[in-house]
Amino acid sequence: MSRYDETTALLVVDVQNDFAHPEGNLYVPGGDAIIERINEEIEAARRAGSTVVYTQDAHPEATPHFAKDGGSWPVHCVDGTWGAELHPDLTSPREDDPVIRKGTGGEDGYSAFSVRDPESGDSDATELDRILRDRGVRRTVVLGLAQDVCVKDTTLDARRLGYETELVADATRPVDLQPGDGDRALEAAREAGAVVR
Ligand code: VGL
Ligand code: ZN
């Protein structure tokens, strides 16, 4: 179990049906097997008074993020559909838990802290950094899906923004589009100064 306190935020990344459910459009192998581990971390975080943040990929029906529109991925997490909903076994957000929706404007939303226009490359901050600073958070614990995409980019951004950061490896799973992507993501997180546990 990670160390939690009031200056720590747990970032629960993209535990949505399309990634975590075997019938999801971009199912990450084993994505459903980590939900119990994630729920344990959520409970520990709440008990210690940590902020629990949930993120959701939330794409329009057409976006250069999708292969059919020139991007890299099968259609997934279309805003308002079953695939974009949080997995039903995941402990639900509470009223005051921040929920960050990424990619609603058609951007790539790999990091919980920033979105990026896949065509121009322009990057824009989400509201997360401000929310965490307002709450006095200095430390983040990152888990969820996918290890080599959104968990990785969220972890690297957290370090870039100066948060002490832990990545809970056994509460993540990689897409492994290329074999070894997951391991390379953990290495990049370590190199950026995150503790990989
Ligand atoms: C993700 C691929 C495309 C993720 C999001 O949440 O890791 N992966 N969009
Ligand atoms: Zn996406």
UniProtKB/TrEMBL annotation:
The answer on whether this UniProt entry bears the keyword Metal-binding reads yes
Q: If you read the UniProt record, what top EC class would you report for this enzyme, in one word? A: hydrolase
- Entry similarity comment: Belongs to the isochorismatase family.
Recorded coiled-coil stretches: none
Pathway membership? Cofactor biosynthesis; nicotinate biosynthesis; nicotinate from nicotinamide: step 1/1
Annotated EC? 3.5.1.19
Provide the taxonomic classification.
Bacteria, Bacillati, Actinomycetota, Nitriliruptoria, Egibacterales
InterPro entries named among the record's database cross-references? Isochorismatase-like_dom (IPR000868), Isochorismatase-like_sf (IPR036380), Isochorismatase_Nicotinamidase (IPR052347)
Pfam families registered for this protein in UniProt: Isochorismatase (PF00857)
Report biased composition (Basic and acidic residues) as residue ranges: 86-100
Query: What is this protein's record name?
Result: nicotinamidase
PANTHER family named in the record: LD05707P, PYRAZINAMIDASE/NICOTINAMIDASE
Q: Does the keyword Glycoprotein apply?
A: no
GO terms assigned for molecular function? metal ion binding; nicotinamidase activity
Q: Which UniProt keywords apply?
A: Hydrolase, Metal-binding, Pyridine nucleotide biosynthesis
Q: Which domain of life is it from?
A: Bacteria
Report the record's Gene Ontology biological process terms.
pyridine nucleotide biosynthetic process
Q: Domain Isochorismatase-like: where?
A: 8-196
Q: Which organism is it from?
A: Egibacter rhizosphaerae
